[in-house]
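Re: the 180-residue chain
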Amino acid sequence: MLHLRRLIWFVVTRLMLACILCGMLVCGFYMCLNTADIYVILNDGLERRAEVILTREEAETLNFYFHADFLSTDPALEGAFDGSSVYDNYIISDFEYDLTVERLWAWPWNNYATCTVVERVPSITASVIASRRNDNLPPVPSWQGGRYDITLVKEDGAWKIIGMQQTTVLMEAANHGGGK
């Protein structure tokens, strides 16, 4: 009887350890999967947002990366389309975009994730629109980048940015791109 009890205890403890190990592996896999998905959404989505703000083109592609609630309340996007953007007098031909993800955390059992990113646009290449060439406009304004706390939500299996709170403003030095 003693040997049977030891054998059962040995098998049960090894099964428990195997279950715990498998659980940790599955949890780690889903954390990595979510982190990779979110990283792609952040990089592609925030770069597309900057492109739409600068060029005012292809705004419908933002629906792949941003929740509708965010798009309807983003002041930078509203400014780009209501004529109050500092880039309205320029045709943006190229820009350099840089995003650094400082912190990112997504539990595998949550549909929300939070992260901290630093967004910069070090250079913008632009020319003045034809109707304003004689107005002696200054060079294209620098991008107002910054550090953001971003909240993402997972809906129908896809991550989307639902909130973006700027915590630090970073103004770029003089642009290296063309201005006239």
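The longest helix spans residues 2-55.
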